[in-house]
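sry for the spam today, last one i promise. struct tokens for design, 331 residues
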């Protein structure tokens, strides 16, 4: 690893005045960071001034304002275009970096993308430090990455699309890779799939340097039906190229079917909410092949809700933070 390589941290922010300062300060505290680019994506609160208040006077902070909301993909693409550092790192506006994150990542050789572990943290525990995991670097292939985003009954939710890798600008430029601006859900997943198809060496380490704050009002939990449709169509578009290796193609088709089911269920519920039972019945008549999966998903959701209501004892408290990647502490 070339020691003088520096990192640009990109933060797309929409109505993030309560959290943007923490995100900016955590990025500026990393010695390897040469640029922090905040794009205020049409906020109607004090996000802009809160970001500016976090400046450390090192002249590394650049704040850009979109007058209207254009979405995280457009904000990130603009930040990539105006920045210069050879390494690019994405930070969500309500998250933060732990100290030493980039030092551990940049110590690993031979990669185009490198991601570390993520600690999912409730707001009440933000002062906690992550466990001390050894890096244990491994290469992540396309099939394994896609399979790591597929939810399975009785298993933890597939979450590898949540990884926040450092990306080499040279690789992105060489393969004309940018975020799809018509997507507001799964835009990271879709970009990583295209990068892996282009031959990206994607390294993952178990060390934890990224804190993801779990909040009930997070924008990531407010996606619309058309966001699911855009993800579904984007994946179908990649599959239609015919250049996906067979093992990865099988995994992508499984993932695509799962997204298609979620979209069909959301569409059905939208029709019922907007037009009542008659509109829902019309949708069922128009889409008979989708109804068995929709009925199964509705039944599953109702059973899970009933189980939560019937639970009389509180859940046992979790011992420690929840991590995206399984890992063992070094001490």
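last one done:
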């Amino acid at each position: 690893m070339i020691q003088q390589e520096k990192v640009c941290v990109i933060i797309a922010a929409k109505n993030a005045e309560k959290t943007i300062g923490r995100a900016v300060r955590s990025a500026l505290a990393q010695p390897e960071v040469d640029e922090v680019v905040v794009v205020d994506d049409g906020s109607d609160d004090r996000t802009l001034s809160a970001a500016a208040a976090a400046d450390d006077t090192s002249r590394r902070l650049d704040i850009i304002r979109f007058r209207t909301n254009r979405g995280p993909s457009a904000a990130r693409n603009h930040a990539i275009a105006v920045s210069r550092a050879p390494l690019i790192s994405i930070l969500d506006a309500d998250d933060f970096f732990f100290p030493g994150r980039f030092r551990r990542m940049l110590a690993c050789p031979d990669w185009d993308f490198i991601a570390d572990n993520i600690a999912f943290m409730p707001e009440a525990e933000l002062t906690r430090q992550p466990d001390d995991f050894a890096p244990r670097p491994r290469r992540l292939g396309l099939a394994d990455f896609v399979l790591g985003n597929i939810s399975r009954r009785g298993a933890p939710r597939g979450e590898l699309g949540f990884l926040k890798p450092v990306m080499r600008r040279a690789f992105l430029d060489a393969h004309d890779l940018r975020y799809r601006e018509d997507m507001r859900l799964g835009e990271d997943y879709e970009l990583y799939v295209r990068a892996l198809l282009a031959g990206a060496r994607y390294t993952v380490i178990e060390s934890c340097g990224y804190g993801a704050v779990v909040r009930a009002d997070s924008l990531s939990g407010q996606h619309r039906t058309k966001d699911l449709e855009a993800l579904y169509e984007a994946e179908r578009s990649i599959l239609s190229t015919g250049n996906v290796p067979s093992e990865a193609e099988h995994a992508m088709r499984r993932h695509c079917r799962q997204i298609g089911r979620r979209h069909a269920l959301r569409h059905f519920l939208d029709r019922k909410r907007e037009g009542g039972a008659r509109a829902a019945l019309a949708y069922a008549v128009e889409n008979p092949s989708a109804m068995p999966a929709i009925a199964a998903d509705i039944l599953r959701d109702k059973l899970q809700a009933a189980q939560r209501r019937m639970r009389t004892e509180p859940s046992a408290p979790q011992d420690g933070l929840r991590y995206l990647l399984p890992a063992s502490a070094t001490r």
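The radius of gyration is 21 Å. ok im logging off now
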